[in-house]
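An instance follows:
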Amino acid sequence: MYVDHLILTNYRNYKKVDVHFSKDTNVLLGENAQGKTNLLEAIYVLAMTKSHRTNNEKDFIKWQAEFAKIQGTIQKNNSKLPLELVISKKGKRAKINHLEQAKLSQYLGQLNVILFAPEDLSLVKGSPAVRRRFIDMEFGQMSPRYLYNISQYKTVLKQRNRYLKQLKYQQAKDQVYLEVLSDQLAQYGAAIIHQRIQFLGKLEGWAQKLHRSITDGAETLTFSYITQIEQAKDQSVEELTAALQKLLRSDVKRETEQGTTLVGPHRDDVRFLVNQKNVQTFGSQGQQRTTALSVKLAEIDLMKEQTGEYPVLLLDDVLSELDDLRQTHLLKAIQHKVQTFLTTTSLSGVAKTMIQAPRVFHITHGELVQSDHD
């Protein structure tokens, strides 16, 4: 899978861009604040319908324009697939092969991307919310069922939290309605926990190989899914549902006092262990970065395993954050496998480490010019 052709109209600082990319490595070269990351973001938004940088979709629309449009032609399964996303003040409209989709959930999964930015190096030492978001964004691309369960869970969670607040301030008294919401939450929550454990087990296998290679066999990386359900790893969806229902019913008093749901996958976490020690707490910065790199690169192989095709890789100024050893392993892991977009302020280092000559685009004030380096 790769992005063959991209057209941007009124997207951030780009008035109009019409560009064809290499199916191998594309370097977006330019000084800061010229539009490199904006172009990378546009590919991400084309895939995910939302940004990794902002929740305010008005930011996508160029100043004084009415809308922003991203059009991409994707090479997928030996055929070309046109995708289109229009963002306006009225919302978003998505098209697959020129046909408008009734729901954005029907559009997701057409283009699979993996973004690796400097902040992803905090995947290990960051908050549990960072790791939950990582899981949901990546696994959601691989499984429409997971995406559906997450969407339904969030909807019911909002309803339940709202009702708990009403109970707290004695604006409601119906405990039966709360039980109905609890049962719905348990049903979707159990499915999410079960899928997360399955996916993480597969991701762990790929990450272990990479981590062992980077550390020259000195370290073994393992994952542990942290949830309030005991021995969740060995339970079926039905058993997890029953366990969640029990926890939700037992904690109602405390939840009502706090006006929020205290049990469920929205509170869960992933623990990374290196040689059986918690790398989040006891690992060096080097170990934490190696773990983050291994996990991110493992996504590439897992996505190929799950979808049948490699994703597009977006590297946003990440090489500057890695030492020579980790740069070498990153580039070795992706060469000849995935289409890669790389933002950088300088070609020094990139040309040395890339085996294939990259296609280079110079970006200045939202203008894109292909270099002769190709």
Q: What stands out?
A: The chain has two domains: 1-112+310-374, 119-308. The two ends are 21 Å apart (CA to CA).
